[in-house]
Amino acid sequence: MIRKIARLLKIKDMREQEALRLVQVKRRALREAEAELDRAVEIRDESVRSYPEREQAVYDTVMGRIVAQDAVEDMKAGLVRLAETHQEVVDEVTRMEHVVARFRRELSDAREAHAAAVRAKEKYVFLHGHVRDLMLAEAEAREEGEVEELFAKPMRTPDGDAAHGS
Fold first, then answer.
1. Could you read off the pLDDT of 133-149 as tens digits, one per residue?
2. Cα(112)–Cα(23) distance, integer angstroms
3. Could you give the number of structural domains in the chain?
4. Tens digit of pLDDT for each residue in 53-87?
């Protein structure tokens, strides 16, 4: 029976180790996502800071000059591209915030799964120790019984008479 419990304990230990590895993987993924979010925020902040200058640069291509209608259309297209590019940068921050939130949930779930695996393993550690202690106590009691039985029998003398300890 103890072998079966030991085998179950080993399985529980392997599951606990796998749950721990998953926690480590999720923690690493969260750190990487947070770093990407930080980079995306820096890029967005720089885009927000430089947007008026870049917009002005597009306007400056036609301002104060006589230009053809095509140049005005090119300027409008440039403003649209500038706004779209800026929006993509802003959207990337939003996307990365969602990714970070998802990884945080996954890490939390992995931690809970690990805690459950630890609790399950601890039950089998206790059970294994308890069964081992019972088996040792039973073996010890059996040994003591054998010793008592050995000394409780009357001793026989060489001529066949039983001696009673006197």
1. 888 888 888 888 777 77
2. 9
3. 1
4. 999 998 888 888 888 888 889 999 999 999 999 99
Rounded Cα gap, residues 124 and 12, in angstroms: 8
In a domain, 133, yes or no: yes
In this structure, are residues 22 and 114 in contact, taking their beta carbons and an 8 Å threshold? yes
Report the CATH number that the domain containing residue 135 is assigned in CATH.
1.10.287.1700
Q: Is residue 126 part of a domain?
A: yes
DSSP at 68: -
Tokens in use for 143? 């040994």
Q: Which of 136, 138, 124, 145 is nearest to 7 (CA)?
A: 124
Helix axes 69-152, 2-60, angle to 10 degrees: 170
Whether 37 is covered by a domain: the verdict is yes
Rg (CA), the chain: 39
At 64, list the tokens.
């104060």
SS3 50: helix
Determine contact, residues 78/55, Cβ cutoff 8 Å.
no
What SS3 state is found at 92? helix
**157 domain-assigned:** no
Which of 80, 87, 91 lies closest to 55 in space, CA to CA? 80
The residue segments making up the domain with residue 56 are: 2-151
Extract the tokens encoding 15: 């599951």
